[in-house]
Amino acid sequence: MNVLDFLITPAEACKRTGPHDQIVFSSRVRLARNLKGLPFPGHAKKADRLKAFEALMPAVAGLPQMGAAPFAEAMDKLSAMDKQLLVERHLISREHAAKNAGSGFVLNQEETVCVMVNEEDHLRMQALRPGLQLKQAWLAIDAVDSSLQERVEVAYADRYGFLTACPTNLGTGIRVSAMLHLPGLVLAEQINQIIQAVNKLGLAVRGLYGEGTEALGNIFQVSNQMTLGESESDIVERLDKVLLQIIEHEQNARLKQVAEKPKVVFNHIGRAYGVLSQSHSISSKETMNLLSLLRLGVDLGMFAPTPKSLVDELFLCSQPAHLQIGHPEKLDAEARDAFRADLLRQRMKAVPGPDHTKVASKPE
Amino acid sequence: MRCQVCNKAAATVHLTQIVENQIKKVDLCEACAKEKGVNDPTGFSLADLLLGLGAAQKMEEATTATGAEVVCPDCGFTQADFKKSGRLGCSKCYEVFADGLDALLKGMHKGTQHKGKVPPAVRRTADVRAKLTKIESDLKAAIAREDFEQAAALRDALKVAKNAEQEA
Asked: CB A167 to CB B19 under 8 A?
């Protein structure tokens, strides 16, 4: 099956809404599980990896929670571009994109539940929700996990809980995370303080594509690090509390920047609009950073009636694999930069010029 | 004091961090401190650091104390493998390397006892067992106070519960 045919369009994907979605793009809860009696994928011989793959793919795809006709494919059947598309949609990890025979991927039609088979663990199951909905995501993936455990026996010990390849995931195997847009805190130069405070609480702050990636476009991922010695709901609740605080700080930072340094804020946003709508070659990195400012402008009301879903769609469509869609020949970086600029000029026609007078009358 | 990363140079950088009321300490030489980004407070997390190196270190201490190198009988994983990858080989490894692991987990997590979800099948067996124990003690009590009517009822209940256990 073709990944592109299965996936919902970026336009549709970005129209989904959830609580606090001005600041929180999405909420995710991931569970790591392994089959009883088989070595973990990283240390397994090919035969054992295949055994796990063959047991798990049909078991996962047949779960009631995966709905009718889920996408289920072996990683070696996917092209490099398909894999990159899935990474850009945050449906698989970059590590998983590098996998081939013996690894697999299952996704439901709604794109709310996805499962990686034979990544670092036999199973990495994830539920996604738009906006801040950690608890809902946890309940969804908990249900998937419970029904799967009726079909396969997983590695579990009373003392250590669910056994994982890396001791950092031991116990609950849970990673609760949210993707946040924090341009206000970055402009106010408060972001490092926030990151440090969050780190002190035992939580991790990462860039757009997880571990070791840059925070492009003022987008940050916050997640738990500890998985043992605490229940899943405690972990979810703690992260939820911290996120609500970060949201409040971000809202205050935005209000404060607009009140104290309106020229700086409007200048950034106005220039971003100019470059995005007039360039003929633009890199992915620059695009992300400018789109972040455009989204801030939309949130402030400067581009009414432009919906923020349009900006989110551009975030997605300007990524390398998404740009490659419709081009049979492989685009090099230079060609991509030109196509990206073409796309942006075209789509920015629907966005009226920035109007800073609309801001003061419309605080959040 | 030697550096905990390279185990060669003298440790000159000593870090202490308190995470959730647990004190974590790490000793590094200057070169390793630089490499791990210790000078940059934003990019540095003691937990990450401890997890990358303290783990292997502690396992080594635990295993060398007993002499020979420990190898997992199920998957052939060794502590050298762990040192290299930071991952374990299979479920059995958690028993084989338990001595060193505990110290590592203490530094990494909130506790060393799982407090989260229990697999449905494990929970069911536990429930059935708890029920059995309860009936058995009730039965003993009934016999002790010579309430034979009650005892007979409990004996029947015990039979049903035992069958259920075998099925579960």
From this structure: no
Amino acid at A338: A
- CA count, 13 A, side-chain hemisphere, A342: 7
Peptide bond into A58 cis (omega under 30): no
- Cβ contacts of B55 on chain A, cutoff 8 Å: 167
Q: Are strands A219-224 and A104-107 parallel, antiparallel or unpaired?
A: unpaired
Report which DSSP code applies to A280: S
DSSP state of B52: I
φ, ψ of residue A24 in degrees (nearest 5) = -100, 115
Specify whether the CB–CB gap between A59 and A72 falls below 8 A: no
Contact B93, B77 (CB under 8 A): yes
Q: In chain A, where do the E strands start and end?
A: 24-33, 71-74, 104-107, 113-117, 123-130, 156-157, 161-162, 174-181, 203-206, 219-224
Residues A301-325 have pLDDT tens digits of: 999 899 999 999 999 999 999 999 9
Yes or no: say if A232 and B116 are a contact pair by the CB < 8 Å rule: yes
| Largest Cα span, chain B | 80
Judging contacts by C-beta atoms under 8 Å, the chain A residues touching residue B105 are 160, 167, 170, 228
Tokens of B78: 């060794």
Tokens standing for B57? 């270190």
Q: Nearest-5° angle of CA A237, CA A243, CA A249?
A: 145
Q: Exposure of A74 by Cβ count < 10 A (0-12 exposed, 13-18 middle, 19+ buried)? A: middle
d(C-alpha B40, C-alpha B59), whole Å: 29
Measured between CB atoms, which of B90, B115, B118 is closest to A230?
Answer: B115
* pLDDT, mean over chain A: 93
Does an H or E element contain B124, and which?
helix B120-144
- Separation between Cα atoms, residue A318 and residue A337, nearest integer Å: 9
Element (H, E) at A26: strand A24-33
Instruction: Kindly list the strands in the beta sheet with A123-130, ordered across the sheet, starting from the edge strand earlier in the chain.
Output: A71-74, A104-107, A113-117, A123-130, A24-33, A174-181, A219-224, A203-206
Q: At what angle do helices A284-300 and A232-260 cross, to 10 degrees?
A: 80
Q: Which of A150, A160, A226 sits opposite B110 (nearest CB)?
A: A226
* Stated pTM of the model: 0.83
Q: In A, residues 62-91, which contact B (CB 8 Å cutoff)?
A: none
CA-based Rg of chain A, rounded to a whole angstrom?
Answer: 21
pLDDT at A208 over 60: yes
Q: Does A226 touch chain B (CB under 8 A)?
A: yes
The string of pLDDT tens digits covering residues A326-339 is: 888 889 999 999 99
DSSP class of residue B7? S
Rounded CA-CA distance B152/A298 in Å is: 76
